[in-house]
Each structure stands twice: as structure tokens, then as C-alpha cells.
Specification:
This protein folds into 2 domains: 270 residues, no CATH class; 134 residues, no CATH class. Helices cover 58% and strands 6% of the residues. It is built from 19 helices and 5 strands.
Length: 442
């Protein structure tokens, strides 16, 4: 990898203060507008869940399900994040509103199947929870041939065609992204490159962690809910089983079935008598504490440091060759999605091995085997050194000789987490190279 080839500058025709203020405002908009849009979509989905339960049961029951959904710490953690999993969850809830459940007044096969198809195009795994639901619909439908020929096939054809056309424009050639997704994650199982877990992980850790303190109420509600909701429980179990067969596992993968679980939690609360108020207080306080901690405190450093990087362009106009090297584990920071400036940046890369090499090591793994030796080889000439380095605190001692010899000084420290592990430290350090009086290391 080369160092920093870009020669883009940070100066402009506006005065420094005005230019910096305008850019700062634009950056905030570009960061917050997608989050607000995602939050709005999530709110619409939550309202649909409330409306569905009001149709199926009554207003009181709908309120309990709505309460469980709104006080879920994992919902708070994910609902504003611009992840495909979040959009998958939003479309799943809205599609469920139109799904032909017994007692639903809003059932519409065209609408729900269109939303499922759209979710599949956005993230192919969206089809997993819908397999038992669609199969049940097909089994109970009297006009099965009409359902397939007049609804499922036309909707699937139109949505898939639009996806192909969009990808053709973007990639410049015909590309079936959904097949590539299946090939990468299932057929080649390359997702294990980013970590693997035992088959039981979702049942023993993932699902209990996502549900949190809702878990006992979910189990209780499973015994109380009417038979017509068994399909929702089957969907949850089916989704957990399918994802358990894949080696790479993450909490967010099962986010789409979390609203299904809230239906059973709502039934549990609705049937509680003596312990209802203590249960409500327990659910609310435990989830809000988790939501506030994970949303405002835990691992916040990687976002805070990006705000600091934004300031490099307009706070130091004379340093037109400013550059940043993020020496952290892959995907630690949002990168250009938060910076939005022509500032040369680089990070340790970790592309998966697509060639089938044995004992494959990506750039990040090679770096962490011997950071000091890697830096000496990569930056053999002082002219290639970046002006700013960003590292986790755990790396500081190991590369201290390089930092001293290259005349780097720590200029900022950001808290990241109370639970550091491995390559991730409790704090993030920003180092700036002082050019005045610097001696050549070679």
C-alpha cells in the first residue's frame, strides 16, 4: 500500500471562521439527516405494530406490546443506525401489518409481499423469517395458483428487475448482488473471516442478550399467547436455527424478529396482576440504563475522534498536506461518512481472501504481528509519513519508539469504552507530527 498520494487541500475562498462554520453545519446535516430519516422509519414501523395489535386484540393489549417495543434497549441501540438490518426490521414490521393473520383487518397480500421483496433486495437475509410466514399463507390460501401467478411472481419479477437495472448502472455490468451475497456468506462461508461462534451462540448468548430483561416475560408470554400467534414463535425459532448454521454471528442479525418477541412480552404483562407495577418499573429502568449506556457512553470514542478529524481541514489552513492514518482494527471508525472533506485518509485494510490462499493474512493482521517493524518498512522515508496518527491506547507503548523518532506528539485523547479487549483500548489517542526541527530518521 502506498502512503498518501492525494494532494487535495483544505483551503477555500471563504475566511477561515466562516468557511469552517459553513462546513461544520453541512457535516452535521449529512451525519444527522440519515439518522433522523431512519428514526422516522423506525417510528412508523412501531406505530404499525401498535395498530396491528389493536386490530388483533384490543387497545390495552396493544399498549403493552408497544411499551415493550419502546423500552427495549436493543431497539434503542439499533433503530436510528443506518444499517441494512435496521431497514430489514422496519420493512418486516410494516409487512407484518398487512400479513393475513387471523383477526387482522389490514391484510393485503400485494402490499406485504411487495415489502418482503423490497426487504430481500436490500438485504437477502430478510427472506429467512418470512419463509414460515409465506409458507403458512400459501398453505391456508384457497386460490394457491392465483396467489403465485398474480401476486408473488409478478411482484418478485418487478422488484428483482429494478434491482438488476440499478446494479447494472452502478457496476457497469449485469450483476446479481443477491447471488453474490449468498455465495460469499453461505456457499464460500467467507463471513468467518470476520469472526466465528459455536452453533449454539444465538440460543446461549445472542438471543438472551438482545432480549435482555424482556427474556423472562417472553418465556412467560409464550405459554399465554393464543394459538394464532404460534406462527410468530415458529418464525423466531426458525430464524435462530437458520442463523445458527452460519459460523459468523452478530447480535444485529436477529434484530428483525425482536418485534415478534414483544408480542409475547406484551401478553405476559397483560396477565400480570400483583407484580405488574414492579415488573413495569424493572423493565423500564433496566432497559433505559442499558440504552443510555450503550447509546451515549460505550464505544463512543470512534465517533468523537471523527469530529476531531473534521476540524483538521478548516482549523489548520496552512497545512494543505494534512493526512490521517488510522492504525486501528478494521471498520473501527465511520471514515468519510463522517468527515466529508477532501482530506487524505488511510486505515489498515482487512479484505477477505477471495483466492483461497492458505494462512492468509490481511494488512491489519500483518501490522499487529509486529507493529514497529511494519511501520519502519512502510514509512522508510520521512516524506511519506502522515501528519496525524490515530491509535487505541493499548498500541501506544508498543510503537512508542516510532512515535518518538518520528517526532509525533499526542494532541488529543478520547474515551472509548470501560470494557477494552484485545486490540481495542479504553481510550483513543491522536498524535500529530511536529515538523519544526524534525530530524530525518534515516
Amino acid at each position: 500500500m502506498g502512503a498518501f498520494n492525494s494532494q487535495k487541500t483544505c483551503t477555500g475562498i471563504w475566511p477561515l471562521e466562516l468557511n469552517g462554520g459553513i462546513r461544520s453545519l453541512k457535516n452535521r446535516r449529512m451525519i444527522w439527516i440519515p439518522r433522523l430519516a431512519q428514526a422516522l422509519l423506525s417510528a412508523i414501523a412501531d406505530i404499525r405494530l401498535y395498530s396491528l395489535m389493536k386490530q388483533l386484540e384490543n387497545q390495552q393489549m396493544a399498549r403493552w406490546v408497544f411499551f415493550c417495543q419502546l423500552c427495549s434497549w436493543f431497539t434503542w441501540y439499533c433503530c436510528t443506525r443506518t444499517l441494512t438490518n435496521t431497514m430489514e426490521t422496519v420493512l418486516t414490521i410494516i409487512a407484518l401489518f398487512y400479513y393475513p393473520l387471523e383477526g387482522s383487518k389490514s391484510m393485503n397480500s400485494v402490499k406485504y409481499s411487495s415489502l418482503v421483496a423490497l426487504a430481500f433486495i436490500i438485504r437477502p437475509t430478510a427472506i429467512i423469517p418470512w419463509i414460515p410466514l409465506v409458507f403458512r399463507h400459501f398453505w391456508q390460501e384457497q386460490k394457491k395458483l392465483d396467489l403465485i401467478l398474480h401476486q408473488f411472481l409478478p411482484i418478485g419479477f418487478v422488484i428483482l428487475s429494478l434491482s438488476l437495472i440499478i446494479d447494472r448502472i452502478f457496476f457497469g455490468q449485469w450483476t446479481l448482488v443477491q447471488y453474490n451475497f449468498l455465495k460469499f456468506n453461505v456457499l464460500q462461508n467467507l463471513g468467518t473471516f470476520y469472526g466465528s461462534h459455536p452453533w449454539h451462540w444465538y440460543f446461549s448468548q445472542g438471543f438472551p442478550a438482545v432480549l435482555g430483561t424482556h427474556l423472562p416475560f417472553f418465556i412467560h408470554g409464550c405459554f399465554l399467547a393464543p394459538k394464532r400467534y404460534r406462527i410468530l414463535l415458529v418464525t423466531v425459532l426458525w430464524t435462530l436455527l437458520v442463523y445458527s448454521m452460519l459460523s459468523h454471528k452478530e447480535f444485529r442479525f436477529i434484530y428483525p424478529v425482536l418485534p415478534f418477541c414483544m408480542v409475547f412480552c406484551g401478553y405476559s404483562l397483560n396477565h400480570l396482576k400483583m407484580w405488574k407495577k414492579p415488573a413495569l418499573s424493572f423493565l423500564f429502568l433496566s432497559n433505559m440504563l442499558l440504552a443510555l449506556y450503550t447509546g451515549l457512553v460505550h464505544q463512543r470514542g470512534t465517533l468523537d475522534v471523527m469530529t476531531h478529524i473534521q476540524e483538521l481541514c478548516y482549523s489548520k489552513p496552512n497545512k494543505s498536506s494534512a493526512s490521517v492514518f488510522i492504525m486501528m482494527p478494521c471498520h473501527s471508525t465511520p471514515y468519510y461518512s463522517h468527515v466529508h472533506y477532501p482530506l487524505p485518509m488511510r486505515f489498515l485494510q482487512c479484505p477477505p481472501d477471495l483466492t483461497g490462499k492458505r494462512q492468509y493474512l490481511d494488512e491489519a493482521d500483518t501490522f499487529y504481528l509486529n507493529p514497529l517493524n511494519w511501520l519502519d518498512k512502510e514509512f522508510h522515508n520521512d516524506s511519506t509519513l502522515p501528519t496525524h496518527l490515530i491509535i487505541f491506547s493499548v498500541l501506544e507503548e508498543e510503537i512508542s519508539a516510532f512515535l518518538i523518532s518520528s517526532n509525533y506528539e499526542r494532541t488529543a485523547v478520547f474515551f472509548h469504552t470501560h470494557l477494552p479487549e484485545g486490540r481495542t483500548g479504553s481510550h483513543i489517542h491522536v498524535y500529530e507530527r511536529k515538523l519544526e526541527g524534525t530530524l530525518n530518521r534515516r
